[in-house]
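Hey forum,

I'm writing up a methods section and want to include a predicted complex as supplementary material. The small molecule is zinc ion. I've pasted the protein sequence and the SMILES. Can someone with a working setup run it? I'll credit the forum in the acknowledgements.
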Amino acid sequence: MPRERIYLFDTTLRDGAQTNGVDFTLADKLAIAHMLEELGIDYVEGGYPGANPTDTELFAADRGLKTKFTAFGMTRRPGRSASNDPGLALLLDAHADAICFVAKAWDYHVRVALETTNEENIASIRDSVRAAKAKGREVMLDCEHFFDGYKANPAYALSCAKAAYEEGARWVVLCDTNGGTLPDEIERIVGAVVKEIPGDHVGIHAHNDTEQAVANSFAAVRAGARQIQGTLNGLGERCGNANLVSIIPTLKLKPEYADRFEIGTSDAALAKLTQLSHALDERLNRAANRHAPYVGESAFATKAGIHASAIAKAPATYEHVAPESVGNKRKVLVSEQAGKSNVLTELERIGIKAEKDDPRIGRLLEIVKEREAQGYAYEAADASFELLARRTLGTVPTYFDVTQFDVNVEQRINAKGERVTVTMAVVKVTVGDERLISAAEGNGPVNALDVALRKDLGKYQKYMAGLTLTDYRVRILNGGTEAVTRVLIESQDDTGDRWTTVGVSANIIDASFQALMDSIVFKLVKSGAPA
Ligand SMILES: [Zn+2]
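Reply by user p_vandermeer:
Happy to help. Structure tokens for the complex are below, copy them as they are.
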């Protein structure tokens, strides 16, 4: 049986731009539009031409995109003609493949917000769709507050939608603008709409105010709607819009949908979804949601020992889809609750061969448990775990030895009469027969220690080029009678690889030193430095 097409409409650049703390530049918008095109999105809504300088510039010329770039704006204002409305003129003149109008579909809003009559609102919809069609654009209408409007006055809500369809709008999009409608209501109301307007002309625009925007989108599809609007990572004002990053894999991988429908996203594009989702967060300078379905770092992570042993035998036993299909990775967490099978699976992942009954595996597990009780977090510090494992199995050489370090923090008044804090670190290192002393200043004790430590490592110095610390996190743990400090350091090298190391001590400098040492030694192991 031929599969029906579902069209995906992304509004990250328009509705998603309403997210608290998100402010897209023109460069951001263009980069995200290209990401969406690669993902196989049918329509990319860019913004409101004429509403702000960024969007006006965005729509001033062609952007070289194959996806249908869509401009958003209001239908003509009540009491004006379509040819005498400057806002509408800007929208019609924008370089866009499609125009998405927004209009009220709730009579209460027509009266109170628009202060016009039901008839004039419908005339405005008809005139605007007609004007955009005359300009050769593909046209759609977002019916604002459609579901609340339908519950209050079904005949009027429906007549707004029908007016657009009758004038030749390609899509009539039913919006749950306040986000409070529940899936069974969506299914019932969309079911009623598709009796009047064919489902392959009906879209759904859901907001996440009851955490059901994705479920509501699927409810609309079950009832017959064939366009889904949403955003990347569920961006959007308040609780966000329907998350396309969750919707796309469900459409592609769940037989209930995959057998009946097809979308523009290829298997190859799906396999880059995790990367795309993280790239967006990176651009927004915010941490990715570890627990995001499909693409989160924890989406395929297992902790308990019994699950890990089953996963090692047959991954499908504890995974609803294959992590690689969405570009994610299976992860077995090595933690206090770890069993032997977690450790074995993790060792295999990092490329260390070990037999199940090797006594050193039991020893490693004991050390992990012991150290986690002291505050070490190997789950978060993959590189420290790998070093611990390699050391327990006897494969990490002693590259160098730090015989002494000294960190001095001094506050004083400088020559200009300003109060300044100066930090200086001195590190004594033995590399083979060589004894080296390095000193460095830093903006704080950890920075000074790091700079001094990496300043001169003799024959290993060449491996340090390109190594940078990208994150430093400190946490005070209250275990037992005294507080201890846990430091997590994230490092990166010029190959783009990132790794995290951990240190724990009652003293923050000592904890930082442990994590720094692990990071440097890990880099040497990784680079294949000779002993
Ligand atoms: Zn919206």
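Some notes you might quote in the supplement: The chain is about 35% helix and 20% strand. Residues 63 and 273 are 23 Å apart (CA to CA).
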